[in-house]
Specification:
The protein folds into 4 domains: about 90 residues, Nucleotidyltransferase, domain 5 (2-Layer Sandwich), CATH 3.30.420; about 190 residues, OB fold (Dihydrolipoamide Acetyltransferase, E2P) (Beta Barrel); about 120 residues, no CATH class; about 90 residues, Hypothetical Protein Ychn, Chain: A, CATH 3.40.1260.20. Strands 4, 5, 6, 7, 8 and 13 form a 6-stranded antiparallel β-sheet that branches. Strands 16-17-18-19-21-20 form a 6-stranded mixed β-sheet, covered by helices on one side. It is globular. It has 15 helices and 25 strands. Helices cover about 30% and strands about 25% of the residues. A hairpin with a 5-residue loop joins strand 16 and strand 17. With about 525 residues, the chain is α+β, with helices and mostly antiparallel strands.
Length: about 525
């Protein structure tokens, strides 16, 4: 479908790429120069720990955190890197002698302690970047993406993208790749290869093989941990992966990066050279295309629906919950019809939000309860259809009688919310504060409980000005009652910038002027 745009903002310390489909922000990618991702990088790593109980190992790749390597991702004991060269007939014959299928079967049946030992050097690729407190996930099964093909030097397999629709075209592409690929190596044919000439596929294949051989040569240049291959930065990855025939135009706001894209495109995809445009508007490019506003909306908890209903998205540690509400939508005929219509509308918005916010893992959808099974089936089909446009793989269960749907979506990168936000420093990430009345009454109970043990003839309470106002006005009678009970004067002191939940209680001796002195303090918030 024509009309899609790639809008790239890279005139500052970060690169931001927005994919706009049908006039709507569909995907957003962000890469900060000081925090460049490592997904796709290939390393010579060193095994630092083997965990038989988890059937996994930790591999030092030179990053802050060791990478995690599962037993299923271990290719075997890859000490003989030279056997993986594929640049001439002799080395191809060596590859043919490698028992790849047997190694794969052995790896599936073998235990991690049989395949890897501490201190062993392994060649790994980062398959999934660090997320939260977890380190990167690595694999020994390397894949090198090109424009039309993905090269898999350690896997004897040819795959065709499911998005290539016609069986005739799938057979043509498979025949081309099978006739040219090195025996023992594998390729995946990408969606953009549909209709591409044989010479272009051959050029892509030769380029990827050269890259792989250069990686293998680098393994001899130093000890682990060692970076062997740095994947393309976000800008060129975007051009390689997202600049498809469906994209009408690519607009970028930096002259140097515009020139870099032009060189890349002329080298690998010359037919797209006329689609690249340098943005020269006065306002920032994301403002000019209305993207900044959409990014802010993508961070909101509540998402409005056109009918008047809404989604409420809560992303937790274990799972993400999405609640569907009717809101202002009252319908025209009956309640069941209104509910069903809202749920169907919510399906597309849910799929769009998952894609835009890059939410993965376990997701629970709380649709509005429907009485009729046929309506539940209608909503489930609408959700399944909406998720087909998402590149990330998703598994969805049927709607339960409570209106709940459990689904998983492949997590490929940090979610947008966690990339652009951090826990609130004021509530410490809880998402809530105790109410002012709760804090007042908590303080009064503390004074009643411990007031008699404080030294002196008065009790000094230091707290946030808003709490002090409550104690001195609407709750003054309770303060007076405590003074009578304790036979001590209670002095309320407001301190600017003191946290709402924080307070200090101390005993004081009053001098002849009525001022208090001495005593001890307490900060309940610090003890929580």
């Amino acid at each position: 479908m024509a009309g899609n745009l790639l809008v790239i903002n890279c005139d500052g310390p970060e690169t931001r790429v927005a994919l706009i489909e049908r006039g709507q922000l569909a995907e957003l990618y962000i890469e900060r120069r000081r925090e460049r991702g490592i997904v796709g990088n290939i390393y010579k790593g060193k095994v630092v720990r083997v965990l038989p109980g988890m059937q996994a190992s930790f591999v030092d790749i030179g990053e802050d955190k060791a990478a995690f390597l599962y037993v299923a991702d271990v290719r075997g004991a890859p000490e003989d890197y030279k056997a993986l060269f594929v640049d001439d007939d002799e080395s191809r014959e060596e590859r043919d002698d490698l028992p790849k299928d047997e190694m794969a079967r052995a790896a599936r049946g073998a235990r991690i302690e049989e395949l890897l030992k501490e201190g062993q050097e392994v060649l790994v690729q980062v398959a999934k970047g660090p997320i939260g407190t977890k380190g990167a996930r690595a694999t020994s099964y390397v894949s090198l993406p090109g424009r039309h093909l993905v090269f898999m030097p350690t896997v004897n397999h040819v795959g065709i993208s499911r998005r290539i629709g016609t069986e005739k075209e799938r057979k043509r592409l498979r025949a081309i790749v099978e006739s040219m690929r090195p025996q023992g190596a594998g390729f995946i044919v990408r969606t953009v290869a549909e209709g591409v000439a044989e010479r272009e596929l051959h050029a892509d294949m030769e380029f990827l093989i050269k890259v792989w051989n250069s990686i293998l040569k680098r393994t001899e240049s130093g000890k682990a941990p060692l970076l062997l291959y740095n994947d393309l930065d976000l800008l060129l990855r975007t051009v390689r992966d997202l600049f498809t025939p469906e994209v009408e135009k690519l607009i970028v706001d930096s002259r140097p990066e515009f020139d870099r894209i032009q060189k890349f495109v002329q080298a690998f995809m010359p037919d797209f050279a006329g689609k690249i445009e340098l943005y020269e508007g006065r306002e920032p490019i994301f403002d000019g295309y209305g993207i900044e506003v959409e990014i802010d909306r993508a961070l909101e908890r509540k998402v409005p629906l056109k009918s008047g209903g809404s989604l409420v998205i809560d992303q937790g540690e274990a799972l993400t919950a999405i609640d569907v509400n009717t809101g202002k939508f009252v319908g025209k005929r009956n309640l069941e019809e209104t509910i069903t219509k809202t749920n169907v509308e919510a399906c597309k918005e849910i799929a769009d939000q998952l894609r835009l916010r890059s939410i993965g893992g376990i997701i629970v959808l709380d649709f509005i309860d429907m009485d009729k099974q046929q309506n539940r089936e209608k909503v489930w089909k609408a959700l399944d259809e909406a998720l087909k446009h998402d590149k990330a793989r998703a598994n969805v269960t049927k709607i339960s009688e409570l209106g709940l749907v459990e689904m998983t979506r492949k997590r490929t990168r940090e979610s947008l919310g966690r990339s652009l936000t951090e826990p609130c420093f004021y509530c410490e990430g809880k998402g809530y504060l105790k109410s002012k009345l709760t804090i007042c009454y908590e303080m009064l109970r503390e004074i009643r409980r411990e007031g008699a043990t404080y030294p002196g003839d008065s009790v000094m309470v230091t707290c946030n000005p808003e709490i002090a106002d409550l104690l001195a006005t609407s709750d003054q009678q309770y303060v007076d009652e405590l003074e009578k009970r304790l036979q001590k004067k209670i002095i309320i002191k407001a301190r600017e910038r003191m946290h709402l939940e924080e307070y200090e209680i101390s005993g004081r001796e009053r001098d002849n002027d009525g001022k208090a002195d001495g005593g001890r303090g307490r900060r309940p918030r610090d003890e929580q």
